[in-house]
Design brief:
Two copies of one chain form a homodimer. By secondary structure, chain A is of the alpha/beta class. Chain A has a domain at 2-49 and 182-314: NAD(P)-binding Rossmann-like Domain (Rossmann fold), CATH 3.40.50.720. Chain A is 40% helix and 14% strand. The first copy, chain A, is built from 13 helices and eleven strands. In chain A, the strands form three sheets. A six-stranded parallel beta sheet of chain A has the order 1-11-8-7-5-6. In chain A, helix 4 (47-69) runs parallel beside helix 13 (312-330) and helix 9 (183-194) packs across helix 10 (214-223). The A-B interface holds A 147, 151, 163-176, 200-201, 203, 209-211, 215, 219, 222, 225-232, 234-236, 241 and B 147, 151, 163-176, 200-201, 203, 209-211, 215, 219, 222, 225-232, 234-236, 241.
């Protein structure tokens, strides 16, 4: 469902890519040196810091909603079974929701639950006026139709923004704004904006075309007037396409797939991947890496998100933002862009 | 609403571009001669011929639906006021609907109609079991909220496929297929497919990002495994991007904007534009041109749609196809891809 879990699942078998990816910084930078001045070291875009800002703003908005409208935003999380990654992620969400003062509803169902029972639980949450956002943690056990379950969530409570109506409104220009924007893509945009990255008129390459990251992030970048190319498993000469990009969003779930010499000097890199690769020097025997070889990329890019501590923490922050906006929508209040400045993204 | 009307509106002031666009064929072709063998003359992709095939197949499907299910597909067209271009287009639609054996409902309202009355008319059509598709001809007079009126159309009768739910399902992978795909984009895809153009793995550039053409055609090409770049008014160095494209879809509404030396030798060009430019040699004083300088492009491309007679006739053909599919959907029958072969597009 979210990049965090998706990344873990897709990239768990990262193999030796991690160890092999680091070229000398000099080599990666000098290859492209003719095109623009050699960069020394990219600025890190800290999702850890930016997500704290977002959470702080969400907390203030929650207090305001309670003070002025007697409304406490409510987030329901439904988890089926006991997958380690899902449980860990759901716990992080619950903690974050508590910190900003949400009303929390937790529904934990056994691995053996039937689709009918799960649908009935969702229907109950749809009818619960204290719940403004409903999140069903994916993946669901085999035999349950995920799409059917997600369709059961009222669009007014679709906190992940995955419903066809929300995605349609995200892609359509000048129509109704979506009630919620998928969390990880929204987090990528927030990172760009709060790092002062100009998007309009820039060439952006999105690697990956998933429903939860690649496709919506491409729509958002296009709505901000970037020229967007979406690359995927069938793309020919991906390296050449990435080399032309001012902004690269990597969301394919392959450990350190994008190398330093793929990048245009001075570009901005948003690395959505969260993969584990074997690392004997670590206590756990593994370490976490992105879809980009960070060490190489740092020598070429102007700004880059680290892994961990980049896009990861933004996903939950944007989930909180979405919940507040759905609570506001239930009161027929306009959505509040989290940023002080108006911008085209919160469309 | 449809490219036909949109093209007429956007490109009416084409000015002198038409006269100026034709380079010598030799010059356009030879510039790119190093990259690939010089082409002589592109094959024309005839929308006139292909739309006839589609209509013939639709007619057969209508007969089958009547014979086997006692169901006559019904198309309602709502027109407000008396714009020349709208009236002409609506008349073409009515004629085409009659030819394939549809039940037709025509609602003509005066320019002065109120939004409330128009909404009530749409509600009546929503409730009419003989009507499977509802088309409200755009643009609507000032003072009427077009988006509000379009939202009133039931998604099950949204024959233009413009609703957020249909657009969302078009963009989402592996979900519910849209009940209808916007007509002009669907027509572009049909032209590619019936001309034997391989799309998977190819680089496609879409010029224009409108809700009715550019955005959905990009989503369709991506679903067919092309690598898609969407160019628009804020794109830098558009020529270089087009030069890399194996497939070019021009849908920006500017007369002969794309020149021969913008094209990669052997590429395929789908020209959605319908613009008029002054031409003293014509009785009407104008002639119709596309968004691509056809004469120049013919010397470089391998296949190209002419204007007129390319994409234009496909729009109405796909409207007929959509109506049949909505009628089938009302009977809980699966959609029939018009082509004999199964393919990923009819998703």
């Amino acid at each position: 469902m979210l990049a965090f879990a998706a990344g873990l699942a897709a990239g768990a078998a990262g193999g030796s890519a991690g160890a092999a990816c680091v070229l000398s910084k000099k080599s990666a930078a000098s290859k492209n040196a003719e095109k623009s001045p050699v960069r020394g070291q990219a600025d890190l875009i800290s999702g850890t810091e930016i997500s704290k800002e977002v959470r702080k703003e969400v907390k203030e908005q929650v207090e305001q909603l309670q003070r002025e409208h007697g409304c406490q935003p409510g987030l329901a999380v439904v988890i089926v079974g006991a997958r380690d990654d899902s449980s860990r992620y759901v716990n992080m969400k619950k903690k974050a929701a508590a910190e900003v003062g949400f009303h929390s509803v937790d529904v934990a169902l056994p691995e053996t639950v039937t689709e009918a029972v799960l649908l009935a639980e969702v229907a109950k949450l749809n009818a619960n006026p204290k719940v403004h956002g409903i999140l069903v943690q994916l993946p669901l056990p085999k035999g349950i139709d995920e799409a059917r379950v997600l369709r059961e969530i009222l669009v007014e409570k679709d906190v992940d923004g995955f419903s066809a109506a929300n995605i349609g409104n995200l892609c359509l220009k000048d129509g109704s704004p979506p009630l919620a924007v998928p969390c990880t893509p929204a987090g990528c945009i927030e990172l760009l904006q709060r790092s002062g990255v100009e998007v309009a008129g820039k060439d952006a390459v999105v690697i990956g075309r998933s429903n939860i990251v690649g496709m919506p992030v491409a729509a958002l970048l296009q709505s901000m007037n970037a020229t967007v190319t979406v690359c995927h498993s069938r793309t020919k000469d991906m390296k050449a396409k990435v080399q032309n990009a001012d902004i690269v969003v990597a969301a394919l779930g392959k450990a350190e797939f994008v190398r330093g010499d793929w990048l245009k000097p001075g570009c901005v890199v948003i690395d959505v991947g969260i993969n584990t690769v074997p690392d004997a020097s670590k206590k756990a025997g593994v370490r976490m890496v992105g879809d980009v070889c960070t060490e190489e990329a740092k020598a070429v890019a102007s700004k880059i998100t680290p892994v961990p501590g980049g896009v990861g923490p933004m996903t939950i922050a944007m989930l909180l933002k979405n919940t507040v906006n759905l609570a506001r929508n239930s009161l027929v209040l306009p959505r509040v862009p989290l940023r002080k400045e108006a911008n085209g993204v919160n469309h």
